[in-house]
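Trying the structure run again after the queue cleared.
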Amino acid sequence: MRLILGASLILGFILSGCATSGNVGAFDPEIARLQNKVEVLESELRQKQDENLILKEKIAEFDKKPFKLPTGKDIQTALKNAGFYKGDVDGQIGSKTKQAIKKFQEANGLNPDGAVGSRTWEKLEKYLSTH
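Done. Tokens:
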């Protein structure tokens, strides 16, 4: 009797496994939902990989143009040409020059810290020469 019961349990288990094998997605909505989710995630991953490549290209392009630290005279000349500095162009970054830098930064949507970093110089550099 035990043998027959054990055999029928094994046979039932095997048959139930066979019923779900094959095209499982058509029979189990949870599996189909998960497969769909995997496809969406794979698509999002491909999009992020494309964005990553674009960013890497931009970084490589930026790295080709090294930041040249401007001299005090460059800063004062550019500020004067932009209308933010009224003093002498002596190359000394004193209080008048720092105030002019801060006003320039405020006018250009930059952090008004009075220091000429790469972002400030990127906007200020175009005033260095008056063509």
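The mean pLDDT is 84. Worth checking whether this holds up in the mutant runs.
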